[in-house]
Design a protein that fits this description.
Largest sheet: none
Structural class: mainly alpha
Distance between the termini: 97 Å
């Protein structure tokens, strides 16, 4: 003899279990095939530093802020320009002074 299957008191069908499919990747992990955002920013920064206008502007800034000696620009500045640099460098006109010790930075440099 078989016993009849009783339905729940609410009159609804019992919920069936279905197989869940796992997500393709956990939400907290990033796709390992794509470089991280920090790595992309670092690569862009390195590429910018290799461009001649930016490189020269950055070196000039280091000399005028007293962080590098003048002779680092010896091969890149000619005659009167180099003489003017040798006169300005000891004064370090771009050296941070006072309470605001933020180091100067090159934001953009373009060549012609």
């Amino acid at each position: 003899m078989t016993t009849p299957v009783s339905e729940p008191a609410s009159g609804r069908q019992p919920r069936r279990r279905t197989a869940r499919t796992a997500p393709s990747r956990p939400p907290t992990r990033r796709d390992s095939r794509r470089p991280a955002d920090a790595a992309l920013r670092a690569a862009a920064h390195r590429a910018r530093e290799r461009r001649p206008p930016f490189w020269f502007a950055h070196r000039l800034l280091l000399v005028l802020s007293g962080q590098c000696p003048v002779h680092t620009l010896l091969a890149y500045a000619r005659g009167p320009a180099y003489d003017r640099l040798t006169a300005l460098a000891p004064l370090a006109p771009l050296r941070p002074r006072g309470a605001d010790r933020a180091a100067p930075a090159v934001l953009e440099a373009r060549g012609t």
